[in-house]
Amino acid sequence: MNAVTKRVITAISIILFVGLGLFLLPGWVYAAVVILLIVGGLNEFYGLIEKKGIFIYKYFGIFVGVLIPLTIYFRFEPTKGWELLFIVTATLIFFVLQFLRKDSSQAIVGISTTLFGIFYVSWFMSFLIKIRFLLPDGILLATFLLLVTKMGDVGAYLVGKSMGKNTLILRISPKKTLEGSMGGLFFSISAALISKLYLPFIPILHLLAMGVLLGFLAQLGDLCESLIKRDCQVKDSGSHLPGMGGILDVIDSIIFATPIFYYYLLYFKLVTLIP
């Protein structure tokens, strides 16, 4: 089985598993899967940073990264804007941990990188739980998000492999092409428009706009992770999934798309928050 076939089969399996799982599995299983993805993504991200010889607070960072989606799932909100208070508290704890170290070298880089991992992986990915549990029709909206972004991945890969000639950004990802990017965007838009079948309450123009927006953000997220891997001089963040690499390689396309999708829905009043 060649790399193209492996990647397509893995991507389609993810879409089917998530799509069916959202409807058939209880809500706590969905939350558990998101948290496991966050843990796996954070572990891989911190592993990449450690390969650069930077000291980070890996395990405490993962611990904080788990608390964020857990508090959202259990709706623990002692005060408005508590997430920012949570981040401030975590930052102070990182400084206290640094005080306890004998070596003060790389203090700024270590603390900053640990916090960046929490923002980049945990906080952004935790919006998957907000979409699922804090919005009406959360199951359908989460399905839409994952379908549009992952179909964009499939389209970019297939078109890029078969027709790609012009490199998109050579210094970041030499295998990504302009043709593949256009193909991915086309697949994302198509998936968004087809979603009218199960999202009849969302106007077609908004589906089109979200297809373009999420398709673009999915590719931007992919490029951002490629930049991180290029800086760390590795090809894949892991080897857990055939043809795709690690967990971070799989979730990179939804990391930026998820929070922006959430706020898009609220800003244009397409949905309301569940009280």
Task: Summarize the structure in words.
The protein is mainly alpha-helical. The protein has one domain (about 5-265). Helices cover about 75% and strands about 5% of the residues. It has a two-stranded antiparallel ribbon with strand order 1-2. Helix 2 (about 25-50) runs antiparallel to helix 3, helix 3 (about 60-75) runs parallel beside helix 5 and helix 8 packs antiparallel against helix 9. About 40% of the residues are buried.
Helix-strand blueprint:
Blueprint: H1 3-24, H2 27-51, H3 58-73, H4 82-99, H5 107-125, H6 127-134, H7 138-163, E1 167-169, E2 173-177, H8 178-194, H9 204-232, H10 247-255, H11 257-267
Antiparallel strand pairs: 1-2
What is the gist of this entry?
By secondary structure, this protein is mainly α.
Keywords:
275 residues, mainly alpha, two-stranded antiparallel ribbon, 11 helices, 3% strand
**Sheet with the most strands?**
2 strands, antiparallel
- What is the N-to-C succession of helices and strands? HHHHHHHEEHHHH
* pLDDT averaged over residues: 87
Q: What amount of the residues lies in strands?
A: under 5%
- The low-confidence parts are none
Number of domains: 1
Terminal-residue CA separation = 49 Å
Q: Which class do the helix and strand fractions yield?
A: mainly alpha
Q: Which strand order do you get reading across the main beta sheet?
A: 1-2
